[in-house]
Amino acid sequence: MKILAIDDNHDNLLTLKALLDIFMPEARLITSQSAQDGMRRALLEAPDAILLDIQMPGMDGYEATRRLKGNSSTQHIPIILVTAHRTDPSGKVRGLECGADAFLSKPIDEAELVAQIRAMVRIKRSEDALRQERDNLEALVQKRTSELLLMNQVLTENLARLAENEERYSRAVRGTTDGLWDWNVVTGECYFSPRWKELLGFADDELENQVDTFYSRLHADDVALAQEALEAHLAGKAPLDVELRLKHREGQYLRFRIRGQAEWDSLGAPVRLSGALSDVTERQLMEEQLRQSQKMEAVGQLAGGVAHDFNNILTVIAGYANMLRMDLPPHGNEVRLAEQIALATEKAAELTKGLLAFSRKQPMAPQKLDLGEVVQRVENFLVRVIGEDIQLKTRLLPDSLPVWIDPGQIEQVLINLAANARDAMGNGGTFTIATGLFEADGSLPSFCGPNGRYAVIIVSDNGKGMDAETSKRIFEPFYTTKEVGKGTGLGMAIVYGIVQQHKGYIAVNSKPGEGTSFSIYFPLAEDEVEMYREPAADLEPEQGTETILVAEDDPSVRNLVDMVLTKYGYRVILAENGQEVVDRFTAHSSDIGLILMDIIMPRKNGIEAFAEIKKLQPEAKVLFTSGYTSDFIESRGMEEGVELIMKPVQPVQLLRKVREVLER
To answer: Where is the PAC domain positioned along the sequence (predicted)?
Structure first.
């Protein structure tokens, strides 16, 4: 086997020789460092295949290919173009137009190199053998026309070999994953391989070999595209390579890539068209999942970017509103106004949390809880969400379903699902919540999680339902079927994000007119940790006398915290950045009972500042605060187990948390 390599780079030739010595010892490599010399060596050596670099000085690989294919002595030698641009379709199209047979991309993969060379050599030798056999037959006919018996014997032998080759071809066709097709443009005769029909769900004898068979299964919206691609190829303007939707036997449309190559007569009229059909439906689904992931990531980055500043602002507004409410007479008009301000900030805070939950960047406070108790706790609130004309039914498993969840976020999931169900039942109906135990063993097609035990919430309604297309897009951010002004398109995206953040799974089952059902699966908690029980809340935070070092770079938040702590008896020392925290603690270490510190600050962040403080006093207590997203905090070195309270935080919550950390 002789291989001719044409490349102006001597190092590339040495590398190729080393690869062939290892992986194709039977091959003899002939090298040339210019296109002109390479064409000369091709004429002299008659190699079995040519490896031709595209980028060369003087004459490039495209022109060399065109000349080699234009020479009758070298036109049958397979040419493999070597390109440095793996994803450049225009370069491959140009190479095909010049006559190239295959392509390799740098850096060259040895397995692909060997496979390409062997495939090209097999094709060449087969074509050479066929040409030789044809020449021999013609010579035999011309010289031995009188020897009819001998000619008949030779013809019989050739027919036997042809039958054997056809059987081999038939086996190859049956073994390929692609469906093959052939169309005689002149006579209209058409052939579809058994695999072609199998891809559409049919047996070989269930579809006729007619052009109309293809068009009858083509999606109506793709007819113009198919016709345009076909006409462009038959006119010699473009390769035939197009993706179209064909109807499967079961009724759904699958996406196929259709490739073909025409043959033309001496006058340039198309006479034949053959090609292959490949199922690319799964690839399209993966691309859609990638686009979905990119959408969610983009919105997540947006949500995370505004979280810090927005949470600082909400902390200040909510803090002063609550301080006013505590100082004002309980029944005056002013206290009601302060309550409205506080209520508005709570709604704004929930919106921020929802966006961060959707993006899976909201810090969680997971607790081991009974899933049934969480549903019961939110049941009264759901009645107000769905309205009086919708009946709420609950069917809760009597056995405990321990799971690690953030109860506030799971309540948000149920509220969002209830709001969607309410909108789907405009004339009233029934909204049902059920809990159960699910043993995943691979038998449920709609469940995509690993095998194991799961606690499941099934939320269903008997509303108008959704079609398949809407069900597929229901969790996309900003996708909504509601009228303008009646939906943000984020409710179900937030549900999806919260479930994912809990390492859970959600599936939807819906049909138009038959209602909708959502199944949410959470991994069952198998550990020995006891169930969390909500402690009794004091009506009024306790007073304190300790000294607290407060470090906060936002002056509005810093002033608010100073006022709240001072009001409840604490002595406060203030710092504006991480370095000041260390300096203030060094000066007052014997007096300071707690450091209340923002994580992200100028000069030194809270993690770095506390690390220095621990060197001075290992027993120092710290309570971190932050309005940033959890992934941003973790990137700054936040360790598990430290005390953290997330902004926006109400004064009462802050005071209770401060007291809790001080008393440990």
So the answer is: 240-292
Alpha-carbon distance 433 to 615, whole Å?
53
Residue with tokens 């500042």: 609
Nearest to 424 by CA among 475, 389, 375, 395: 389
129-143, 465-479, 564-578: the lowest-pLDDT one = 465-479
- Whose structure tokens read 């039977």? 26
* Structure tokens given for 193: 């391989």
pLDDT of residue 486: 47
The label of the residue with tokens 């076909």 reads: 230
**SS3 at position 18:** helix
The token pair that represents 400 in the structure block: 């405990």
Cα dihedral sign, 153-158-161-167: negative
Separation of first and last alpha carbons in the chain: 82
Other CB atoms closer than 10 Å to residue 441's CB: what's the count? 9
Instruction: Identify the CA nearest to 443 among candidates 453, 451, 434.
Output: 451
Under DSSP, is residue 484 helix (H, G, I), strand (E, B) or coil? coil
Instruction: Let me know: does 173 contact 197? Beta carbons within 8 Å.
Output: no
Average pLDDT (163-181) is 69
User: 408, 296, 303, 414: which is closest to 355 by C-alpha?
Assistant: 303
CB atoms within 10 A of CB 560: 22
Q: Does residue 196 contact residue 205 with C-beta atoms inside 8 Å?
A: no
Does the N-terminal peptide bond of residue 648 adopt cis geometry, omega within 30 degrees of 0? yes
Residues whose CB is less than 8 angstroms from the CB of residue 357 and which lie 6 or more positions away in sequence, other chains included: 409, 412, 494, 497, 498, 501
Query: Which H or E run includes 520?
Result: strand 516-523
DSSP 8-state assignment for residue 222: G
What span, in angstroms and rounded, lies between the C-alpha atoms of 335 and 339?
6
pLDDT tens for residues 202-234?
998 899 999 899 999 999 999 999 999 999 998
Whole-number pLDDT of residue 634: 52
What whole-number distance in Å separates Cα of residue 465 and Cα of residue 425? Answer: 9
Number of alpha carbons in the 13 Å side-chain half-sphere of residue 354:
21
507 DSSP assignment:
E
**How far apart, in whole angstroms, are the C-alpha atoms of residue 314 and residue 430?**
37
| Unique residue bearing structure tokens 């008009």 | 333
> What is the spatial distance between Cα 4 and Cα 39, in angstroms, rounded to a whole number?
10
